Each structure stands twice: as C-alpha cells, then as structure tokens.
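Two entries, shown back to back:
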Amino acid sequence: MISNALCFFKSKLRSQLNSEDRRAKIQDSDFIIGLMQAVAKAKGNFTLAQLRLSTCAFLGAMIGTSAFNERLGTAGLVNNLQAALTILRVAGLKTNNSCQGLKGSLGVDEIIGIDASMVSLWDGLSTYFKGTFMEAAMKLHLAINLVTGAVQWFDITPGATHDSQRFPSLSPRQLYVFDLGYWSGLLLQKIVSSGAFFLSRVKSNATLTVTTVVFGMGQSILGHDLLSFPVTRKRKNIVDLMVTMTIGGVDMPLRALGFWHKRESAYRWYVTNLTCNRSFIYDLYRLRWQIELSFKSLKSTLNFDQMPTLNPNAVKAFTLIALLNYVFAVIVRQAATANAVKSGVKNAGSASIQKAAKLFAEMASLLFEPLKLARRVTDAALRRLTEKILPLLGSVFDPNYKKRKTTLERLQAMKI
C-alpha cells in the first residue's frame, strides 16, 4: 500500500510539476520532497536556516539562503503544493469496505467531519491574515472522511474568518458532522435541500418547538421550546423527538435526540435529519473526535503550528506541506490496519492517526528516499523499504487496542 502510493505520487509529481528549464539545479518536485521531509523531521521552533540545511542534506545539493527563501515565498510553490496534494489524495484515497454495512444502515455514502483550527503568526502578517484574539493568525478549515481519515476538502483563511463562512460543497447522501461553530439554520436548510444529512449538537440559544414525542418522554413537552422545557430528572437514557425550527418564516422539521449525562444531570441534545436507529447518534457524533485528533497530529507532530516566516505565500506553503505529510500519515495508518487484518489481529481498526503521524515523522527520510531526484524506483528498492517498514507498523496501535473497541467498531456492531 505504501509502496504503491509512493510510486504513484512520484510518477505524477514529476510529470506535472517539473519545469522544462533543465538549467534548474533542483527541479520543483525534488524541492517539494526535500521540504516535506525537512518539515516532518524538524523539532521545536525550527528556523528557515535549519529547513534549508535539512533540505540540502537530503537532496545532496546546495541551495543558497536567498535562493531558498525566495523559492519558498513564491505563489508558484503554493500552486505546485496544491497540485501535489491533489495527486497524493488520489494515491492515498482508500475505501473501508468493512463499513459498508454501517453506511447502509445510516442511508449515507460517506461520513464527513468538518472543523477549523487556528495558528498564530508574527504580527507583520496581520495585513494578510488578521486574527481575532491575536494580531495575526491563519485558520485551516478542514473536512475529512471520519472512517478513512482522508482529506476531502480544505481552505486557508485569515484567523478572523468565522467557521460557518467556510463549508465544503454539498453532495447528496453525504453525512456532515460538525460542532456548534457551524450552527446555522440556513446551513441546515441547504444540507437538507441538497439531499445530504447532518448531525450537530444543539446551540443553547436555538428555538426548537417540539411537535412529536417518538420515544422516552411524556406528551407534556408537546408545543414547548425544547431547551426551555424543565427536565428535572432522567426519563429514558435516550429521548427521541420531532421538532421544528423556524428559518426565514418557514418551519423546518428536524429530529432532536437527548442523551442523559449523569454528571450534569441533564440531557445533551443533538439535531439531525437522519432516520436511523437512535442508538447510532451518540457514537456517530463521537466519531467527530477523529478530526480533532487530526488537528492535534498536524500541530503536535507534523509542525503545522510552526510558521517561521513573514511571507504570506510561505505561510500557505507550510500549511500545504503539513497537509501533505498528514495524508502520508493516513496512508501509514491504512497500511498498519491492512497488515493487522491480514495477520488476523482482533480490533485491527484501532490504529491511531497520532501514532501514525509520529511514525511517519520518524521515518520520513526513509520513505521519501525513493522519491527524490530522477532515479528509477526499482522493485528491489521497494522490497527493501517494505521490509524496513513492516516491523514498525505495530507501533501505530494503541497499547490497549486488543481489549476495547473503537467508536467506529461499536457503531459497526450496532443493530439496525
């Protein structure tokens, strides 16, 4: 799996990005590969000088300081990195056939998580990336497949941009799972009209009028605002209601589900247009945590939060490099899962994206070795690479993965 992705990525990258100017000391594709491994293996608050030396050492060619900084800050590099990310997303896009039953039970094609994360920048970048609680900040908006981890969509904006102003294009039969930063009646209306599905927590100032009690509560709540109705004790563990939300003078029917929270002695409310078994809803929303773990991996391991530059193009370039390395980490996790399934390991779906990102960062130079320069990737070289990687894939799993099921595995085990 990793070998195939590497071969595909190298072939497409070189054919699409390499310029026809043979005088170039280092071709565009090689410069990108060198940067990716340099950022992946960098530690702490690295500098541009450290990145340059790491890139040069990996490629075996010297790039002057001014030439390196100038190349890093060009719009051309940003465009090339976007093209590289498109290529790699295709190379690393794998389906999870074991989840077909789950998606069939839900009536959806894919389960997509959407969220955004902000990175602080030097104040000098405030003209390009205005922050909110800080002078300058950049925000990465991201949508990932919550089953495979694959990047579905992204956008890079100033930090002051509200989450709800950026959302991926809607597709029928997709389930979009998001937090309260995206709460908007108009968005819910658009999702429904597009033939898609949504799942979100209910915002505390939302007005939802109860029209039908499906399960778990008495009829006295009918006609009342859901969040204003006093619930002083637990009725059922799960409460299932139909409600209406007025949007632009039109009442939109929604499904509201409450799950009793013991510590808070209250129900936590979720709203959706799914018609599936009510037992799915809580764990489905918990699945959204995968995108939080993705952002944590991007920042804590893949250096997304390190922006040692005052050049706005370089900020975008570093963001795209972090995303490229994240996709490679997803490929590493998929390889670990496939290897575990092949070996008959129980709970083989417990591979962690954080551990996969850590393993990828540790072996980035090894992985990228076949990608650099014009050398041909031989079958023997790929076999040697695979032999080195396979024994390491076990570190991608949580130490207790054989003892407990993941959220996804619990969902798969639920009855329709």
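entry 2 starts here
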Amino acid sequence: MIKPWVFEFMHAPDDGGGAASPERVQQVFAANLAIWEDCERGGFEGVFFSEHHFLGQSYSPSPNLLIAAIAQRTTTLRLGVMGVVLPFYEPWRVIEEIGMLDHLTGGRLEIGCAAGIPPELICAGLDPAEARARFDEMLDILDTGLGAPVFSHRGTYWNFENLELRPQPLQQPAPAKWTTVVSDGSARKSAVRGSKICTGFESVTRIGEIFDAYRQELRKGGAEATADHLAIRRNVSIAASISEAEEMEDTARQTARKIMEKDPRVARPNTSVLDAPDAKAGFSVSDEEFIAGTPEQVADQIVAQCRACGAGHFLATLARGSEARRADAIRLFGERVIPVLRAADLPSFG
C-alpha cells in the first residue's frame, strides 16, 4: 500500500505583481481550508504543510496555525509540517506547540523537522552552517523533551535545568517523527534517531541511494526499514485530458524554477530542469520530479516510482495555480488515483 498525502506549499497568489489585497488573502485562506476538507473526503492519508518565509511566494510562515485551523474541520486527516524550520525557534516553544497541536488534532499530529533553505536563513541573519548546528542540537532536545515532561540540557546553543514543558503529546509514545533529507548523511542521522524520512527533487535512482543509506544505518541498530519509514514528494499535474495536464505541468516547472533559483544547494546536471547558479550544490532537480497526465497515467507513474525505491508514502504537490484548478485536481486524485495507490503492492528491500 502507498499512503497518499497532500504536500501544501500554500502559494501566495500571482495576481499581476505586488501584494494581494486583504480581501484576496482572506479568499486564499478560505479556499484552501475548503480544499483540505475535501482531502479528507477524498481519502487522503493527511496533509503535510511546509514552512517558508521572506521570499513572497508562500502564505505559510506559521504552518502550525493552519494545522490548528483545519483540525477543527476534520476528524481523520493526519496533519503535520514537513518540516518546521527548527533554527528559527527556541526548542521549548516547538515542544510545547507539538503538545498542544497533538491534543487539538485528537492525536492526528505528525512531527516533521527541517534545517531550512539558505536564502531564507540568510534573510534572517543566520549563517547556514550555524543553522545546521542549531538544527542538530534542537533535534536532540526535541527527542528528549517529547518523552520527559521535566528534563535538562547542556549544549552549545541552549542550557537549562529541570525545564518543565506542558502539555505532553496525546499520542504516547510521541507522534511519528519525520525529517526532510536530501543527502545520504542526513538519511543516516535520521535513522539513528528513529525518524522517518521524506525526500524529493532527485531522480528515483538517487532517491533509492538515499533510502539505501537509511536502511543500512537502521540495520546497524538491529532494526529493518519498511516502506512506512520512507516518503517521496513530487509535483503532480493531473487532469481529465493530457493536454490540460501538460499545460499544468508547464506551470509547475516554471513555479519550481522560480522557487529554487536562489537556493545554492541546487546543482544542474544534464537532466535538470532548473537554471541553478551553483555547481557545488547538494542536490539536483530531475525531470522525474514532475508527474503529469490523466489519472490513470499519474497513478502508474507514482506506483512505478514508489516501487523502484520502496517508498510507502507519496506526498503530492497538486496543480499549482488557481484554487479552482487545485480543487478539481484533489477531486480527480481522490476518486481515481488513491484507490490504485492503496491497492499497490510494494517489493521488499531486505
């Protein structure tokens, strides 16, 4: 079985340049809340939100607020952030919000963490190398604090004694942990701390290598990775006709190029669709990042990619564009793709 999720970037509207009017902003939030309700009716496993700042492309600087809002409108949809940009926060605040959200969602929370992207970190005055060090230390604090209501920590960036954090999460043990990764090293670190991993951008072959590193590290600790530990995130353009899907795919590629063009981690191999500036970067964007076609074609591509690397979760960034187009894509995906994904058999990677 492949569990289907929506990956929600929460795009700011492109209404001809400049800031959207207050009325338009409210319209965007209202439309998206309705779309996420449709995700539950359509059979999605859940919604993973993203966190982005400063660059004028997203209305999701505080995705935990979106989780709190949609939690009151749904009953089964699992909700999380892929992931919270830990270097922007104090660790106790993150732990306390996780506890609150797990109760507000009735135990439907998933915990996702990310180190952040260099352009946003730099805008906030954070050196990316320091941000990575803060991220690593915060992961240690989170792993301890989510399992102990009172704890102490001595580190490079934070020091405290007998810190009491309430409420503890409703789910015990703590909610499932996820980490966004783009390298073998990050995958191995995630395996050591018992976190599931999600990746994208790269070719299926490269993703398979990242997943293999995760599997190998987990085996060192005497455990085996299953498909449920692994997720792929992709841009998906789905429509009743191939021509409409291809038009949507073109929009998705242009939007991805705009989002990624300032990220120095992005390399440009021959197969890349991006004009990235830095050849020393840490990952590339493959054509396999973009899945497009009719529902049947989309389902076939997703199943093939997940089978090739052993991913049991698929996160779809669906139909970049108008809210109406996204609502149609959610409906089509739910009706004609999700049944195929949930019925799919995955190979063992023993």
